[in-house]
Amino acid sequence: MRVMAQMSMVMNLDKCIGCHTCSVTCKQAWTNRSGTEYIWFNNVETRPGQGYPRGYEDQEKWKGGWELGRNGRLKLKAGGRITKLMQLFSNPKLPGIEDYYEPWTYEYDNLLNAPANSKNIPTAPPKSLITGERLDIQWSGNWDDDLGGTYLHKDKDPMLKGIEDKVQFEFDQTFMFYLPRICEHCLNPTCVADRT
């Protein structure tokens, strides 16, 4: 296939309503294989907030960005060419499943096969897609949607580190916005096809 043009996407953050249409179409197109249930290549986050995967903006944890070397020149925090070559097949700084979330489904059979005259209301508890065991869900991707600007998450946002006291988190002064993180690696993006 001959590629005639590359495509990029620009989003007006004042108009993004966090509907996740771009994320859902991306997940349907690219994460339909076993082992990719918890991956979202494209994501819309509420900012300020923790991000997804958790703390992905923490430059100290992931050794991202640049630092000033002893010789006064900029160097990568993650190391130079030799370090990158040594970590080509085993990078110790990749997020694990705990930085995403354990994928789950629900025990729908409990609802579908419940007797009609049961005294108890049937439920569909969550179960892990990895182990098949029941889960006590603590968080998930975009778990803190629409709560990113509250005081509960201010200490967990790496972008607010050091300026927490300068940012007002009183309820009447909270702020938040949606930040679409578009991957831009598709030649025929499904997130664009679904948009009007």
Task: Describe the structure in your own words.
The chain is largely without helices or strands. It is built from five helices and six strands, in the order H-E-H-E-E-H-E-H-E-E-H. The strands form three sheets. It has a two-stranded antiparallel ribbon. Strands 2-3 form a two-stranded antiparallel sheet. A two-stranded antiparallel sheet has the order 4-5. Strand 2 and strand 3 form a beta hairpin. The longest helix has 10 residues. The mean pLDDT is about 75.
Brief description of this entry?
The chain has 196 residues and is mostly loops.
Topology:
Elements lengths: L20 H10 L12 E5 L11 H4 L3 E3 L5 E3 L4 H6 L17 E3 L2 H4 L13 E3 L48 E5 L8 H4 L3
Antiparallel strand pairs: 1-6, 2-3, 4-5
Q: What's the total number of strands?
A: 6
Radius of gyration: 21 Å
The average pLDDT value, as a whole number, equals: 77
> What is the H-and-E element order?
HEHEEHEHEEH
Termini Cα gap = 26 Å
Number of helices: 5
Cross-sheet strand order for the largest sheet: 1-6
Uncertain segments: none
What does the main sheet amount to?
Answer: 2 strands, antiparallel
Strand content: 5-15%
Overall 3D shape: globular
Percentage of helical residues? 10-25%
Structure class: little secondary structure
What labels would you give this structure?
196 residues; two-stranded antiparallel sheet; single chain; little secondary structure; two-stranded antiparallel ribbon; globular
